[in-house]
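Entry 12.
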Amino acid sequence: MRLFRKDYKSVSDEELMRLYSKGDKAAFEQIYERYEKFVVNFFNRKLWNDRIKAEDFAHDLFTKLIDSPDIFDTSRNFKAWLFSVANNMCKNEYKKQEIRKNTSYDVPDHYQGTDCADGADKEVDKGSFNEVLKSELDKLGDKHKEVFMMRHFEGMALEEIAEALDINTGTVKSRLHHATKTVADKLEIFRKTLLKE
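Predicted 3D structure (tokens):
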């Protein structure tokens, strides 16, 4: 039985890609709706906050999917696979630009730490929090920063990060623990400020 487009919101990414590979264009439209902003924002953070370049890269990535839907192995997790392809595109761009260090992976606009989300942030300058957070993330090594950002800003599961970066889950956990502890220690001043409320 053929699904109507309005039913696609409950369909998994992997099933949508199966449907698209069989010629169902509406299935791809749902994939695009789910991931277009996500992919553009990822590229924007990884490619020096160049929004135009980010949109171009996102366009290229979706064009690859449109032209060759079979490049996705439907036995894999789609989100992790998409991240892996996007990440590899960024690595290729770094090589092309001969820039391998000091890549920017900025804190998303309006990001708040967990403590700030409880309504006790009246006296805490969110701009200062984000500034300190960005500064501390920039001090982390690329491997630790990448895992931290994927987990906390992209909302990816540990297994998805492992698949996207082609590393094991234990390595993800180790890098994430190191990054989270380092950043949390540096942001302790904000927690103390909040506890005075």
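Annotation: Residues 114-124 have pLDDT under 50 and may be disordered. Residues 124 and 190 are 7 Å apart (CA to CA).
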